[in-house]
Every structure is written in structure tokens, then in C-alpha cells.
Amino acid sequence: MAVYRSNGDLGAIFFVVFSYLDLVLLFYCLRCYERTPLESPRREHLKMAVWLLTTLLTTAFSYKVAAIMPFPVQVLVWTMAGATVLGGFYAFFLHHEGTKA
């Protein structure tokens, strides 16, 4: 439906196709991650794939939103996207839950 409504705009078609493929891959990787045993080294690779796919999706949507906003709001959109990406990286790879005494 989105491709049909794009009226041949290749940029819009690419965005829609990319977004859907990214989401399908993201859900697939999340499902694989949940089914992989905790001690498996594959979990780290899947975690990296999930973060990368999420980052790509965040960047794509931020680009589309920022394109129609005035400059101050563009700065805010990109700042929020950057905080989301960096926060996800911290949560996935740097933060380790401590033991409570």
C-alpha cells in the first residue's frame, strides 16, 4: 500500500522496503537471541545485530522526520536519536547488573 501511494518516488519506496526488511530482520534476531542458551557465544553476535538493526531503523526514521522540521527541531530530533543509540549501546554492551547485598 505504501509503495502504491508513493507514486513512483524511489526514495519513498526505498525507505518503505528498507524499514520493513529491517523490522523483519530485527524480530528474527530477537527471536533467535531469546532461544539461544545463555552460555552461547552466539548471543553476543545476535545482541550486536539487534543493536545495529535498531540503530539503522532509528537513523532512517530520524532522517525522515528531521527533513520536514525547522532547524532547531532537527537538532532536537538528531540529539534524541543519538541519545537513543548511545543509550542502547550502553545498556546492551557496557552495563552489567551488580549483585545486591
What is the fold's blueprint, element by element?
Blueprint: H1 2-5, H2 10-35, H3 42-67, H4 71-94
Verbal overview:
The structure is a single chain. By secondary structure, this protein is an all-alpha fold. It has one domain (2-94). The protein has helices at 2-5, 10-35, 42-67, 71-94. The model has no long low-confidence stretch (mean pLDDT 91).
The domain tally reads: 1
- Rg over CA atoms, rounded to whole Å, is 17 Å
Q: Mean pLDDT, nearest integer?
A: 91
Largest sheet: none
Report the sheet-strand fraction: under 5%
Residue runs with pLDDT of under 50 for 5 or more positions: none
Order of helices and strands: HHHH
Using DSSP, what is the number of strands?
0
- Overall 3D geometry? flat
The quaternary structure here is single chain
Question: Percentage of helical residues?
Answer: over 70%
What count of helical segments does DSSP give?
A: 4
Helix/strand/pairing class, anyone?
Answer: mainly alpha
Distance linking N and C termini: 55 Å
Transmembrane segments: 12-30, 50-69, 75-94
Pfam family, one: DUF6490
InterPro entries: DUF6490
Keywords: Membrane, Transmembrane, Transmembrane helix
Features:
single chain; 101 residues; mainly alpha; 4 helices; 0% strand; flat
The gist of it:
By secondary structure, the protein is mainly alpha-helical.
